[in-house]
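Blinded run. Sample ID left blank on purpose so nobody reads anything into the name before looking at the predicted structure. Input follows.
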Amino acid sequence: MPCPLSDLRLLRSDGSDLSHEEILKLWEFFNMLTGSINSRFIFRGESDENLMKQFNVDSRTPDLLAEYLFMTGEKGRICWEENGGFDPEDISNGNFLNICQSLIKYIDDGVDSGGNRAKRIIRFCEKNEEFYKGIKNEVALAEAYERLEPEDKKKVNLYYLAIAHTINDREYRDVSTFISTSTNADVADRFAHDVIIYGWVPKIIGKGSVRRRIIEQVDINDKVTIKHTGLPYCKVAVFPNQEEIAIRCGLLPHFIIGFAIKMDFYVNPAVFTAIDDMYQLNSFREFFAYRRKLQLYGMKINQENFEDFCRRTNFKRYYTFNGEGKYEIHKVT
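Blinded prediction complete.
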């Protein structure tokens, strides 16, 4: 994979040029993630409009934008819109059937919307006829869902909500649990030309049936996770070429390498701290353990007084994740 930073001017978060030593540290950091079995690069294109709604700053003040993004990360609309969305943690049959009913509505509204979007949704329905019919059969859905283990029920909730997110229905968009990212930098660039955020997401931790995640995510093109449950799944995504990874609630600053505005790339200062910490190691065993931990759990970010900082933004909620599969949404008071 060619380095996506090759043609960019590399800057500190305050806008000054990186030193030679810092460029080497960024190179080392990038190489720690390249080709990893524990992580994969992601990219997110963002608009000044959405950034302004979250932070009251945008690409016109990159130093201030860096201060916010590298402290809070970017949050899904559920954190900065008035209304809350569906709760994937609610594994009751009632909540699941509500998700399915809403998904049917979003699909039908998309078919009736006209234009290229309607053509995409119609094509999606044609290629996923079994899925479309299956989510309408509430009796069969409820029976199959009831038999699942709690963890699989949550996975199904997240999967169906991720499909709703990619359909991009206006009703769901304003309360979406997810933000969209892509494993393809060119796709991210097509979505928004104001800012592109560069980061990574971890893969599965553990072996066998023990699978913990530090970030909940849904690969829109991955049907294996849901296929084994016996519930309807999509053979083809709505937009398969977008190579989308839908991340629950938001992208943590611990996993943000930096962001690009045109040809300028602003580096998260935590990158340099991470390499400085690596330099303190004394053996290959320590190095390999450190690299794996970084790939799976992200960088160290000083989030002291985090809620106070959130009050400077337009966030109405923020979330915490304990690494054991439990998300909690908190109101900014």
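Unblinding after everyone has recorded impressions. The chain has a mean pLDDT of 88.
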